[in-house]
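pinned: reference chain
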Amino acid sequence: MSNSAVVRWTVGLSAAVAGVFAFAVVRLQQPLSEADVDGPQTYCYRGVRTHDDEQPTAQCFTVEDGKFSRVFAWDDASLTTTPGFVIPGLWDGHGHLLQYGEFLHSVDLFGAASFDDVRGRLRNYVDANPDAGTSEEWIRGVGWDQNVYGRMPTAADIEEDELLRGKFFMLDRIDVHCSWVSQAVLDLLPADIPDVPGGDIIREPGMGVFCDNAMDMLYAIFPAPGLEKKRAFVSTAMAKLNEETTFDLIFDYTFLCALPLSARPKWAARMAALLNPNGGRLVCLEFPSGKPLSQVGPPWGLTNDTYLALLARPGEEPTTAPDGSINVPDIRPGGLRRLELVKPARTHKAGENEDGTVRDWLHVWSLVGA
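pinned: its C-alpha cells
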C-alpha cells in the first residue's frame, strides 16, 4: 500500500484500531496486572533482555507493587517457564492532527452493519454537505468491512441510491488496505485496467474495490485538499480535541513554522485552550530560528520574541516596530509565561549554523498562575 494511503487515515483509524490493539496488548500482559494479583509475582520466560550492562540477560523476574523487584536467571525447577521472550520497549503514542481533521470531515463507516447502513450514512453526509461529491471534492470515508456484508462491495452498490448516483466517493476499508469507489471515479480510469503487482483489483461481483498497490491509481487522480481545506482540517481537529479535555503536556514539534503569520494567533489561542491550567506544560521547538519573518515559507521564520508576543496574549495579532521586529506585550490573564529557554546540545542538520553550532531553541511554557 502506498505511504500516502497509510498516512491519510492513520488517525482516522486510531479510535477503532488503537482500542482493539491496546486491548490485545493488555491481555498479552495480563499476568502483570495489579488488579488480578496480590503480593509479589514471579514470571519466567525463555529469555529476558534487561539492557543492563552488568546483567544483560535473564530468564525470570519478580514484580511487586507494579515494579520489578528482582531479575534473575532461572534456577528453580518449581518455576514454570512461559514460551516467548521479554524485551523492554517504548510505546510511541502520538497523533496526526491534519489526518485526524480530515477524518472528521469524512463519512464514518465504522460499525456499518449492511450496505443499506452504508448508504444511509453516505446520504446523511450528502444532506449535510450538498456541495460535496464533485470531481473537485470527492467524498471520503473509512471503516467498511466486507466480512460483515458477506461480499466485497461494488460501485453499483453506491449507484443504487438516487441521491448518491453520479457523485465521487472514495471509501477506505476498516484496515485502510482497500478503497471502494463510485462509478464516477471508475469512469476516470481506463476501461480495461490491468492487474497491479502487489495489489488487487476486485472484479467480482463487480468493479469498485482496489487494494494495496492498486490504490495508487486512485490517489493519482484524487483531488488532494488544498491549503484552505487543510487549515479547516486542523481547526476542526483542534476544536474536537478541546471539547472534553486539556493536556498536561503539549509538544509543538515544528508545527508553528508550518503556519503563515496570519494563522499564528489562532495557534496561540488553541494552545492556551488545550493546556491544563493546573501545571500543564507547552514545549516548543523553535525552528527555523532566526529566519526573517518576511521570507515566504513554509517553513516560516521564528524568533524568541515571536513566541513571547503570541503567547503573552493568545489570539491577538502581534504588532511590529518600525525596524520590523515584533513588539512583546505584557502578559494578560489567560496568557502563557516562559519557564525555560534552552539551547539544545545537538540537533538535526537543518537546525545547525554553517559552523556546526546549534541554531534551534527549546521553550517551556505554562499558563499564568499554573
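why pinned: Confidence is low (pLDDT under 50) at residues 1-35. The radius of gyration is 26 Å.
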